[in-house]
Amino acid sequence: MAKPQLPKDFLWGYATASYQIEGAPHEDGRADSIWDTFCRIPGKIADGTNGDVACDSYHRYKEDVALLKQLGAMAYRFSVSWSRVIPLGGRKDPVNKAGLQYYLDLIDELHANGIIPMVTIFHWDLPQALYDRYGGFLNQEEYVQDYVHYARVLFEAMGSKVKYWITYNEPWCSTVLGYSIGQFAPGHTSDRAKSSVGDSSTEPFLAGHNILVSHGAAVKLYRDEFKAKDGGMIGITLNGDWAMPWDADDPKDVEACQRKLEFSIAWFGDPIYKGTYPASMRKQLGKRLPEFTEDERKLVQGSNDFYGMNTYCANYIKHKPEPPAHEDFSGNVEILLEDKNGTPVGPETQSPWLQPNPQGFRKLIKWISDRFDRPMIYVTENGTSLKGENDLSKDQILKDDFRAEYFRGYVNALAEAVTHDNVDCKGYMAWSLMDNFEWAEGYETRFGVTYVDYKGGQQRMPKESAKVVAELFNTLCVA
Ligand code: GBH
């Protein structure tokens, strides 16, 4: 069998997101996003912190770019803070020149150093003003127009310098974690009173529907007015982890795995590639899952130039014998970290949900490739935390063998999928360039290949794993 390889022009680099790294929440006219507000609610963030300083990248973007260059990265995926560019968020609100300039400077600095920018338009930090005005995602009328206007501002300002656009990062997280579990902003939970549009059993699906329509509308705008002259590509990034049956001999667990993948990935992927929601979701959710009107379907179907794939781990899945709970959003399954025989998915990390399983990655990317008819795929996030890393000394942290081993396993599995499974993957962005604000986990959980000394002026120091990532791609990208 041929040796696993990746294409010579394979695009590899690192990813970050605005709220997780920038800090400077009120500088140069930036206004609050829903994450600024959410972090102020006692108990929502594990260590009581927020993104007010984070990696201070608003002031240190030149250091970030120098770091990327030092690590040998070809590309950098970052996100734009909507409330920095349009503080009040809406289509009639003023554009903040200074906020926009930050991203133009960052992009110029990347180009000056030969690094290709990949821009995420939205990575969870919705302007608070839009949430206050009309409930954000829940109001399709208003929201879609505001999102498309925001996208237009970015296309106009940066389009000639950006060839890779991502409309949304992981809508599953914004919808389920934000509108049902309350683990993410805006923190809606099931004990919240029903609003005029619904409750935690309907809001995630309404929010998801409106996100899809706005994604489709922004892609249409890009294709109609920018693509020909700017020559770029646009797609959405979806999250999802591989599903393995808890009891491999139980057909109901095998079936439950498919359902879990459909509820997490195909929820958004099927409308984009097939024009409808998965049958399993329609069956369980009935009218609580919106229907696409003909106009909406036309916008959404076919709206990906590439598929952005985020994945971190795998799970064992057990079917539930009882009928689905009203507020279930996973396909009526139990999500487990051990199978029937007590075999763990993988070793433990600092993140309770993350146990690495590289072969699961190979299977998942093949599943995505098959289901969506072999789309061009960019892995836009993949990486790991490390158990107890935050408690180690700086010197110990820099020797992150566990993370290095993770990348060896995952990147080799990717090369296998490309070489042996006919998967069309063109790039890989590791999460993350540096330790950063890990949302509800605060700063206790680190995902960086670079250590950030939060008590020592945000100094950055590359860890061992950064070298390993570069070596892996230098060795594998030869096909
Ligand atoms: C990504 O999300 C984010 O895009 C990035 O910003 C973040 O820093 C990074 O990963 C690391 O966490 O409720 O048990 O079903 C990862 C997303 C984490 C998605 C956990 C779903 C399932 C938890 N996910 N998750 S569970």
UniProtKB/TrEMBL annotation:
GO molecular function annotations of the record: cellobiose glucosidase activity
Enzyme class label: hydrolase
UniProt key word Hydrolase: yes
Its EC number(s): 3.2.1.21
Keywords: Glycosidase, Hydrolase
Catalytic activity: Hydrolysis of terminal, non-reducing beta-D-glucosyl residues with release of beta-D-glucose
A Pfam short name: Glyco_hydro_1
Biological processes per GO annotation: cellulose catabolic process
Record flagged with keyword Protein biosynthesis: no
Superkingdom classification of source: Eukaryota
InterPro entries: GH (IPR017853), GH_1_N_CS (IPR033132), Glyco_hydro_1 (IPR001360)
Function: Plays an important role in cellulose degradation. Shows hydrolytic activity against several glycosidic compounds.
Family that this chain belongs to: Belongs to the glycosyl hydrolase 1 family.
Name assigned to this protein: beta-glucosidase
Species the sequence originates in: Friedmanniomyces endolithicus
Taxonomic path: Eukaryota, Fungi, Dikarya, Ascomycota, Pezizomycotina
